[in-house]
Design goal:
Elements (H helix, E strand, L loop, with lengths): L2 H25 L1 H8 L3 H8 L3 H8 L17
Helix pairs in contact: 1-2, 1-4
Length: 75
């Protein structure tokens, strides 16, 4: 995978993440905030984005989502 393909993959992931976030927040805001690990302020911002803003934000060269996976503790 070359640099251009990597950037395109990042952009696709970003777009998918934003669309998922908006759908979750629309269906059930409280659960969406919990599942995505968002603040209420960020949830408001994501929910209010226009299509043009979503496309522009998704075009970032940086991953927008952050992993909320935490290691489990084993006894």
């Amino acid at each position: 995978m070359n640099g251009r393909e990597t950037l395109e993959s990042i952009r696709e992931i970003n777009l998918s993440y934003i669309m998922l976030a908006q759908r979750l927040l629309c269906e059930d805001r409280a659960i969406g905030i919990f599942r995505l690990g968002l603040s209420a302020e960020l949830a408001d911002l994501l929910s209010g984005l226009t299509l043009g803003q979503v496309v522009k934000l998704a075009s970032s060269d940086n991953l927008l989502s952050a992993s909320t996976i935490t290691p489990c503790c084993r006894p």
